[in-house]
Design goal:
Layout (H helix, E strand, L loop, with lengths): L1 E2 L17 E3 L4 H8 L6 H24 L8 H7 L3 H46 L4 E5 L3 E6 L4 E5 L3 E6 L3 E6 L2 E6 L5 H14 L4 E3 L8 E5 L5 H17 L6 H18 L4 H42 L3 E6 L2 E5 L11 E2 L7 E3 L3 E4 L2 E4 L5 H15 L3 E3 L7 H30 L16 H17 L5 E4 L21 E4 L2 E5 L5 E5 L24 E4 L2 E6 L3 E6 L4 E7 L3 E10 L2 E6 L2 E7 L4 E8 L5 E4 L4 E4 L2 E6 L3 E6 L4 E6 L14 E9 L2 E6 L25 E6 L4 E5 L9 E2 L1 E4 L1
Parallel strand pairs: 1-5, 6-9, 14-17, 18-40
Antiparallel strand pairs: 2-3, 3-4, 4-5, 6-7, 7-8, 10-11, 11-12, 12-13, 14-15, 15-16, 19-20, 20-21, 21-22, 23-24, 24-25, 25-26, 27-28, 28-29, 29-30, 29-31, 32-33, 33-34, 34-35, 36-37, 37-38, 38-39
Length: 742
């Protein structure tokens, strides 16, 4: 169904493209719950649960075989007419089948049932809130909006009587129809795109009663006692209750169900000490939810009480938002103290609701701000926080939703309790003399050796090769005996906000949001075209290599000088290219740091290495030399690596997924280089390629680069390829892999 707002004109569907903006009133947390309902490692969690269930059965039979549970019944063995080892295999197969039916299938049903209820609950919420969703596209003649049902409305610029931009929204009046675009439902790029197009096409009737602050805003908010404060406190408590939401992914349900199964089995078993401990564990598991919820509510009430005390003392709140971060001071003791500053990198999330905004962990009710102040705060947070800025809702989890969350768990617990009670009753009524037990000394040693050899052959034969993907296998030079530095240079690099590439004649071009001056053009302008995409701009000439961090860009000139622009580690913020170091062979950037290999083989680092949770692993003061006698150095998002002249591989940084080539039981991170491998020819971090594989203009897509992960890839001197990290975790850090081109 389409509605044309211009009489006597046809619907020009053939020229509609876009969208240029999306107005999305669906709260961010509901989409997050729905999209992440399976959990990041749900397959690994399911495999782990199966390994624990079936592995327990195999271990129990193995212990019986070794004589830890009595002697083997010769009478039964003679009646069956089979050898001891073969009988054990038959018994194990029977136990595995029983474990499949009694333990694993109910746990699998619990996970899938809960996943179905979660999908249904949040799918319904998204559909309800999504009724106000629409996408908008600007053409040279009209603005067209389209909702989820495909209904379109056309707003021709000739019919638009007025356009007003306020701190809260864009309001368009057109031939008896009105369109309001709330800014809180737009992301940063969408808000700028709407303003740009409206000013371009409707400049004559465009009225801007609100002008954004370009750099920073500082507010002094006096506390005022009165009836309005009760509404603010009530709104804050509603927000806290909405955060106390019970939500479990499939990954958590696998692990939770497995723990409950083992605790129930121990609690209802014959082991006196373990039974008591298991019962205590079950009580704790039952009480942990109301205790944690009550603790959060108590902390919220204490915060409200402290706020009332500040009101009575008349202490004002000082808040400042700028390029370097967010400052909040609500105590006279903190006045003038720099510890009140929080950098944008340290702020994990900024959430705005209809009545509040939360910057980091600080809650503000919108009633304490004027509309213009709130508009400035929103604009600056969107400008500096980018994708961390989200619109959320405040809706406490009702009794029905809570009941649906715990219904599968309660049914599973009841089923397992009935199963264990039945098993205990059966064991109590069974004569001990009728039990069939295994003893290790039965059967000949030749038969045992033959079975072990067969098992080894079967295990080796079932092992499948591990494949890893690369966008261009030939560019890796995997079969070359020597890899030259010219082959390692990157001519194309992208991140979430843009891309840079080097042309055949050595000219570096960039298309970026330029939030930190990465383009090196002396400003932070985004240079966006009419369609809302960033224009490709010439950055420098005589360039042979480019590398990107999250907030900066570096490039290597033909003369071996490393240049950089943006929020540079060690060099500070710069909107124009500055020289970082000379006599450089190679350089690579982590998220917030860089590693440099000089002509003399020395390795230098600058910036900060963080782990996946945002904790600092190593922070360098300026440019620091970390190693020498190196032939290659590179960096991933959170790790760094160096190959020395003797072929040894040294790594440091985040090891949370074994990507440093060391088992996580040894260390979760390394602040200093550690030797992890010998006879190494080449190393890649995070992606098996020298250049980025993402193509502009897909920098706005939610899907990540398919070749980027927390992995390390190496080629040994013998030409074999190995990898370690995400998806390859095990007792052995590096595993042999085969490279395949997608």
């Amino acid at each position: 169904m389409e509605k044309n707002m211009h009489n006597g004109m046809q619907k020009p569907e053939e020229i509609i493209s876009g969208p240029d903006f999306i107005c999305d009133p669906v709260p961010y947390e509901y989409r997050k719950y729905y999209e992440r309902r399976k959990g990041r490692h749900h397959v690994a969690a399911g495999i782990f649960a199966a390994a624990m269930i079936f592995g327990g059965v195999i271990l129990n039979n193995l212990l019986n075989l070794l004589g830890y549970d009595g002697g083997f019944s010769e009478t039964v063995r003679q009646i069956l007419g089979v050898g001891h080892i073969r009988y054990v295999f038959m018994q194990t197969a029977s136990d595995l089948l029983r474990a499949l039916v009694v333990y694993f299938l109910p746990l699998f049903g619990l996970v899938k049932w809960h996943a179905y209820l979660t999908e249904k609950t949040y799918g319904k919420k998204i559909k309800e809130y999504g009724k106000g969703w629409y996408a908008g596209t600007f053409t040279p003649e009209f603005l067209v909006t389209e909702n989820q049902e495909g209904e379109r409305k056309f707003y021709y610029y000739n019919d638009i009587a007025s356009v007003e931009e306020t701190a809260e929204s864009y309001h368009i009046a057109c031939a008896g129809e009105e369109l309001t675009i709330p800014k809180m439902y737009l992301d940063r790029d969408s808000a700028r795109s709407v303003r740009h197009h409206l000013m371009r096409y409707c400049g004559a009737c465009y009225e801007q009663s609100f002008v954004e602050e370009q750099d920073s805003v500082q507010l002094v908010i006096p506390w005022k006692d009165g009836s309005g404060q009760q509404e603010i406190e009530k709104g804050y408590m509603s927000y806290v209750r909405s955060r106390c939401r019970f939500y479990y992914t499939e990954t958590k349900m696998w692990l939770l169900g497995l723990c409950l199964c083992y605790l129930l089995r121990l609690a209802m078993g014959d082991f006196s000490i373990l039974s008591i401990e298991a019962r205590v564990g079950l009580v704790i598991a039952v009480l942990v939810i109301p205790i944690s919820r009550g603790t959060l509510l108590l902390m919220a009430k204490l915060a409200v009480k402290k706020r009332r005390q500040r009101i009575q003392s008349g202490t004002p709140v000082v808040m400042e938002i700028g390029k370097s971060g967010f400052y909040y001071q609500n105590d006279e003791k903190q006045k003038g103290n720099s510890c009140g500053w929080t950098s944008w990198g340290a702020i994990k999330e900024i959430c705005e609701g209809k009545d509040f905004i939360i910057i980091g962990k600080v809650y503000f009710d919108k009633k304490i701000f004027t509309k213009d102040q709130m508009g400035q705060i929103r604009a600056l947070c969107q400008k500096y926080a980018g994708r961390k800025y989200h619109f959320i809702g405040v809706e406490s989890q009702g009794f029905g939703e809570t009941a649906r969350t715990f219904m599968p768990i309660l049914c599973y617990v009841a089923l397992m309790a009935a199963v264990f009670a039945a098993q205990n009753g059966w064991r109590a009524g069974t004569d001990d003399s009728s039990r069939i037990e295994v003893f290790y000394k039965s059967g000949s040693e030749e038969e045992n050796q033959e079975s072990e050899d067969d098992a080894a052959v079967n295990k080796q034969g079932s092992r499948e090769p591990i494949y890893v993907l690369t966008p261009d296998k030939n560019s890796l030079y995997l079969t070359a005996t020597d890899v030259y530095m010219n082959d390692c240079y990157s001519s194309y690099e992208t991140n979430e906000t843009g891309g840079f590439y080097i042309s055949a004649d050595g000219i570096l071009y960039g298309a970026s949001s330029n939030s930190y001056g990465e383009l090196g053009l002396g400003n932070t302008d985004s240079y966006m075209n009419a369609k809302g995409f960033y224009r490709e701009m010439e950055v420098a000439r005589g360039v042979k290599h480019v590398a990107l961090g999250n907030e900066f860009m570096t490039y290597l000139t033909d003369s071996g000088v490393l240049m950089g622009t943006g929020n540079l580690p060690a060099a500070g913020s710069s909107y124009v290219p500055v020289e970082l170091m000379g006599d450089v062979q190679y350089a690579k950037c982590s998220d917030y740091g860089m590693i440099i290999l000089k002509e003399d083989g020395s390795v230098w680092c600058a910036g900060t290495l963080y782990d996946e949770a945002g904790n600092v692993i190593r922070e360098y003061s300026g440019f620091e030399q970390v190693m020498d006698h190196a032939v290659f150095a590179t960096a991933g998002a959170r790790t760094m690596a160096v190959i020395q002249t003797d072929g040894t591989l040294w790594m440091w940084g985040d090891n949370g997924k074994q990507q440093c080539g060391v088992n996580t039981r040894v260390a979760g991170s390394f602040a200093e280089p550690v030797q992890v491998r010998e006879s190494v020819r080449m190393v890649w971090l995070d992606r098996l390629s020298f250049s980025s594989s993402r193509e502009y203009p897909e920098y706005l897509a939610e899907e990540p680069d398919p070749y980027v992960s927390d992995r390390t890839y190496i080629v040994q001197e013998d030409g074999e390829t190995y990898a370690c990290g995400e998806g390859l975790e095990g007792e052995t850090a590096f595993v042999k892999v085969m490279v395949s081109e997608e």
